[in-house]
């Protein structure tokens, strides 16, 4: 019986697998992209590039790095998590203004350009050394996103340090419509106050900021007790950022790991469904691979499959009644 299988059925079936695999491979090469609806995202990611973001109090692969470098690494990881059809753009913040560097572009077709431009963001782009996050940066980032359109949400990455500092009694936000704002306020930095590097216009460190070099938090009006402050040092102002996020309608998340940013950016609350060209060439390619695997499978595999087929047919004949309503005799099977 095995010889009969090898001489008749097996060679004939195996020979057909090769041309079928060839046709599948040709289809994988020439097959165009198929437009399918899917969930996508659109973001303008704003990086705080003030000098406090140069503090090296976070680590990447066990090596201390600056907050800005850590944020860039997290964003690089997030690019790989966003589905094709999503769009991402870059902007930077210092002073009271957010400056758009790159309008949102599709992440898969422009992945290399996005990575290179992301790595190029650093403190040398800074045009001033003071900053206002709540009263300038967030407003400006939202305006930029609205001007760009495309339903872009905001991702604002900062350590929360402002210079000069905002007095504790001062209102953080005025007349802001939280219903028009969507996105994330992302906090990055350590919990312990650390010295802030002082850099020149070329981005070279020339020392550290001292207490007499910066403006400290003023005393609360009506209080004779001076405020305890150390604005020459910096740590993540998470409580402050959480308050700003609550008042603006943004979500707040701390950047504990490089994967946290990507997890936030694929939040389904910020997804929108639209038709996207989808590459399905892997389907015929996989089919060709299976055909070739079958073509060159050992004879014992084919004999086992043939035996399984015979067993199933025999089982069906025993269970399913014949057309005349009688079961076939057991010996005929």
Question: Can you walk me through this structure?
Answer:
It comes from Paraburkholderia ultramafica. InterPro entries: vWFA_dom_sf. This is MxaL protein. This protein is an alpha/beta fold. The protein is 36% helix and 21% strand. It contains eight helices and 14 strands. It has helices spanning 2-30, 67-81, 111-119, 133-148, 238-248, 260-265, 282-295, 299-319, and strands spanning 34-40, 42-48, 58-60, 63-65, 87-94, 97-106, 153-158, 183-187, 194-195, 197-199, 205-208, 233-234, 251-254, 272-278. The strands form five sheets. It has a six-stranded mixed beta sheet with strand order 6-5-2-7-8-13, with helices on both faces. It starts with a helix and ends in a 14-residue tail after the last helix.
Measured between the Cα atoms of the first and last residue, the distance is 16 Å
The helicity comes to 25-40%
Percent range for β-strand residues? 15-25%
**CATH class type of the largest domain:** Alpha Beta
Question: What fold name goes in the CATH topology slot of the largest domain?
Answer: Rossmann fold
Order of helices and strands: HEEEEHEEHHEEEEEEHEHEHH
- Biggest sheet details: 6 strands, mixed
Q: Please name the fourth-level CATH homologous superfamily of the largest domain.
A: von Willebrand factor, type A domain
Report the mean per-residue pLDDT as an integer: 82
Number of strands: 14
Q: How many domains make up the coordinates? A: 2
- Structure class: alpha/beta
Which sequence of strands runs across the widest sheet? Answer: 6-5-2-7-8-13
- State Rg: 31 Å
**Spans of at least 5 consecutive residues with low confidence:** 1-7
- Put simply, the count of helices is 8
Overall CATH architecture of the largest domain = 3-Layer(aba) Sandwich
Shape by Cα distribution: elongated
